Amino acid sequence: MYIKGNTFIVTGGGSGLGLSTAQELLKLEANVIDLKNTEESFYKGREKNFLFIQADITSEKEITKAIQQVIEKFGKNIRGVINCGGIGGVGKTVGSNGMPLDLDLFKFVVNVNLIGTFNVCRLVAAQMVKQKPLEEGERGVIINVSSIAYQDGQMGQVSYSASKGGIASMTLPMTRDLSKFGIRVVTVAPGPFETPMISHLNERSKQKILNQTEFPARPGKSDGEFNKLVIHLIENTYMNGEIIRIDGGIRLGKL
Amino acid sequence: MYIKGNTFIVTGGGSGLGLSTAQELLKLEANVIDLKNTEESFYKGREKNFLFIQADITSEKEITKAIQQVIEKFGKNIRGVINCGGIGGVGKTVGSNGMPLDLDLFKFVVNVNLIGTFNVCRLVAAQMVKQKPLEEGERGVIINVSSIAYQDGQMGQVSYSASKGGIASMTLPMTRDLSKFGIRVVTVAPGPFETPMISHLNERSKQKILNQTEFPARPGKSDGEFNKLVIHLIENTYMNGEIIRIDGGIRLGKL
Amino acid sequence: MYIKGNTFIVTGGGSGLGLSTAQELLKLEANVIDLKNTEESFYKGREKNFLFIQADITSEKEITKAIQQVIEKFGKNIRGVINCGGIGGVGKTVGSNGMPLDLDLFKFVVNVNLIGTFNVCRLVAAQMVKQKPLEEGERGVIINVSSIAYQDGQMGQVSYSASKGGIASMTLPMTRDLSKFGIRVVTVAPGPFETPMISHLNERSKQKILNQTEFPARPGKSDGEFNKLVIHLIENTYMNGEIIRIDGGIRLGKL
Amino acid sequence: MYIKGNTFIVTGGGSGLGLSTAQELLKLEANVIDLKNTEESFYKGREKNFLFIQADITSEKEITKAIQQVIEKFGKNIRGVINCGGIGGVGKTVGSNGMPLDLDLFKFVVNVNLIGTFNVCRLVAAQMVKQKPLEEGERGVIINVSSIAYQDGQMGQVSYSASKGGIASMTLPMTRDLSKFGIRVVTVAPGPFETPMISHLNERSKQKILNQTEFPARPGKSDGEFNKLVIHLIENTYMNGEIIRIDGGIRLGKL
Ligand SMILES: NC(=O)c1ccc[n+]([C@@H]2O[C@H](COP(=O)([O-])OP(=O)(O)OC[C@H]3O[C@@H](n4cnc5c(N)ncnc54)[C@H](O)[C@@H]3O)[C@@H](O)[C@H]2O)c1
Ligand SMILES: NC(=O)c1ccc[n+]([C@@H]2O[C@H](COP(=O)([O-])OP(=O)(O)OC[C@H]3O[C@@H](n4cnc5c(N)ncnc54)[C@H](O)[C@@H]3O)[C@@H](O)[C@H]2O)c1
Ligand SMILES: NC(=O)c1ccc[n+]([C@@H]2O[C@H](COP(=O)([O-])OP(=O)(O)OC[C@H]3O[C@@H](n4cnc5c(N)ncnc54)[C@H](O)[C@@H]3O)[C@@H](O)[C@H]2O)c1
Ligand SMILES: NC(=O)c1ccc[n+]([C@@H]2O[C@H](COP(=O)([O-])OP(=O)(O)OC[C@H]3O[C@@H](n4cnc5c(N)ncnc54)[C@H](O)[C@@H]3O)[C@@H](O)[C@H]2O)c1
């Protein structure tokens, strides 16, 4: 799919992986929507091709309304959504004090990462279905963001891994649901990237993870690595139904 | 781990895979608890080693209470939980009518299968932690039930696959959380088994699936195949952190 | 499949994983053949149900002849083969001295582990095809031994991982080739087990690996863990086409 | 890694996936070497940035000599190798006539695809090690070509799947071997692409495969899809140790 002139929604587009992705799409002359739950916007002066919408990905109402706003501004031309909106969440199944993990924490992480991602997918896809197909009948592309934690989940990551495993496993059935409409679905599973999310980790945990890197021996770059992969996945029509790790060769054993 | 004389909770133990598992555990002279959300019980006359508790796996309160009841009857000796409680749930991301999947369906399936399973895991594990270790320091074993749909999700299975992918991906971090307490975690991912769940499928869907079987060309047997695998996984101390398909060689392509 | 009275070939049955498997099969009153390339035999006094054959798994001639010997002694009743015959092989793609790995080392490891395993499979399967089917049309079962190195290959394991990845990936097509004859194929991927193979490792490497174990914090037991899994896989007719890790929860990151 | 001005070897660069890759690299102003075992060359008039070398990837001598020729023409500047050289190979473990697969066929496929690929990797990597590092210490990138048959191997693909599984599984240990030299390793696992290799399939087999495609419902394009992915993988420094399917969402069930 060509990027120029088309409209792409980036959830969590105001920071980290989403921000770099949104910026790269803007460079390539797409219309870009940053859709997130907090207020400030990083795109001052971009008003022509850019729209910031405050909306919670878990909310049917807010996302439905957001899609309408997008169409009002850019027309019936939503061709992609990149689901970078998400949260971390640390806690062991049973803590050192013998207490079980707070169920609400688990629910919260699954709700935002898995249910929120699915909510955006289904609503954006239903809009894409109504739009005219492009070349070869392609109508749109969905890029979801899982994590290497779907395969290499660490101690304390049970909630996060569960949510990211859900995202990974829905890739194929969603592909199968949406193929007849010409909508592709690809999931990216990043290793450690230097973003606000990872900078919340304490130094020791971060160092332990970085000790496991191969080449290059550093976290990934949102700008130049993550976002370039996303651009490639949007452009390459034969990438469909895949789950792709981008992790500099890291495999997290016991830390 | 030895089975005889130990106490095992089977969620969904009143039908299908759970029923066969509970029966096999009874044969091996374990204490068995069937924990499910409906009323009737299949274990008349088994009162000595058997307990039926009506409880919803998604409820903190009901599962906490259930664990207390188990301990009152059988002592502080809960050594295993087999999470067979779960539900199906069919619906495409975007239906033929162009409508997005009902978000509540997705939430419901994820809530029962993923959050419910995790809820039982964390509460049972916290109880196991308090109990005296057995040989080699082993305190217990958790067997979760995913599905081949975590890898081979079909059209219409996006909710189910998401929930089962969450279960699969939490296997490793849960193993890592619980190892120091001597608790193992293994996930079984069954292919088609002849149970109430699969008998809800219409004939055409069922036939399409069975056309994909290799040898033997039939659904799996709850009694003799699924339950024997579970018994093996309880007994074999080196099985930990694994995800195991049992599917007669089926890989579900596009049906 | 029932074990008692049936005939099973165990390659590499004279040591390590193969030895324990052969011994367990003998306990269960099977006829057992230890097929290996070295001379001494551990089964003195077992002559009734046991046969030792010196044969190289990579040799068409020697394995063909071995199968004939088996049939002469036990009749047309070969129901299983467990391919434990294999070798290690350490060396980096490019060594610290800048030299490329000796191609002959790579070839040797691939030849024994992958080609040797396949050679035995195809010849034994061709014999099974000629035999009368058992219950449900089952004619036999092939258990191949890969390694967790097919997924977690370490520095220096490129040859070994290549050979074990070949074994893992041929599981499914071999299952599909042999299903119509009622022959199942399952691959076991062991983590570290205390056998002659692993005792060749230096203490430091061994310790690094064992530091990565979860519960139990020790190598696996050939007798009681590996061999019991094999017995289960022989008996459980719905296990077909699977690749099963048995590793105590280990995932080998960067050591 | 930047492409312009650097030197890349493409094995099998004279047809199919390799040809498109070589052509794209030439467009991006790289020096390109087509290294294959047959004679004709498709690059007439490209003499400045292009070199054709007839060499068998399985031969230590021929590849060693080829690397010397490359250096003589383009200098010590080999920055990448894309291993497209490979062959098909069809045959069941046991044929319909009851005969086992010819061992030489299995050996031949494994020898070219797996051992040949490794041979080129080790020799090219040893050359890269001697060269000056680029930005961030990067010295080179190896792109190997597996196939979706490493996971979805069909009836009749046991040899091919074994060879491609070997390639997939050596990705990680080779990454770990070469990281300290700043050399990355990535494996691409293509689904069906319209190349000479696939055009050898009979119409019925081809149709069966294409019936399994999702969107787009056609084979992949060497030019525009496969080669663009390769370019991306060369350029994206954080892609290391990955195995990437490019298959339009196909998952091959039982055909
Ligand atoms: N950074 C890493 O190392 C890493 C690794 C693997 C996966 N990921 C994943 O990548 C994604 C992006 O992460 P990041 O590192 O850029 O983190 P980030 O915290 O910078 O970005 C997450 C964004 O999601 C938004 N968000 C959170 N909840 C939301 C909600 N309910 N509704 C709308 N927006 C919401 C936040 O406002 C924020 O902009 C996440 O899904 C994360 O799990 C990150
Ligand atoms: N049958 C198959 O082919 C198949 C295949 C793959 C996976 N599975 C999985 O195996 C598990 C068992 O399935 P089954 O085929 O035996 O189906 P089943 O419907 O016979 O059993 C499911 C059981 O779960 C119980 N349950 C459902 N919701 C519950 C709740 N909220 N609280 C407590 N109990 C609850 C039900 O009462 C029932 O006893 C399920 O998780 C299912 O997804 C089944
Ligand atoms: N021990 C472990 O930790 C471990 C881990 C993963 C996988 N494995 C695999 O398990 C299998 C058994 O290993 P083990 O640990 O018991 O080692 P082992 O060295 O004790 O056994 C290997 C056996 O294979 C036989 N053998 C080797 N080459 C042969 C040939 N050409 N023809 C016939 N027989 C031959 C040897 O005689 C020996 O009996 C091997 O394939 C090994 O790669 C072992
Ligand atoms: N085309 C597909 O659908 C497809 C799918 C999956 C994987 N692949 C893989 O992609 C790679 C390229 O395949 P293709 O479709 O372009 O096929 P192709 O037959 O057009 O190209 C293969 C090339 O390899 C060369 N080659 C073969 N043996 C060689 C040897 N010993 N030494 C040097 N060169 C040798 C041939 O000369 C030819 O140029 C192969 O490894 C193939 O297995 C192809």
TrEMBL record, chains A, B, C, D:
Keywords: Oxidoreductase. One of its GO terms (molecular function) is oxidoreductase activity. It holds the Pfam family adh_short. Gene3D superfamilies: NAD(P)-binding Rossmann-like Domain (3.40.50.720). InterPro entries: NAD(P)-bd_dom_sf, SDR_fam. The keyword Oxidoreductase applies. Belongs to the short-chain dehydrogenases/reductases (SDR) family. This is 2374_t:CDS:1.
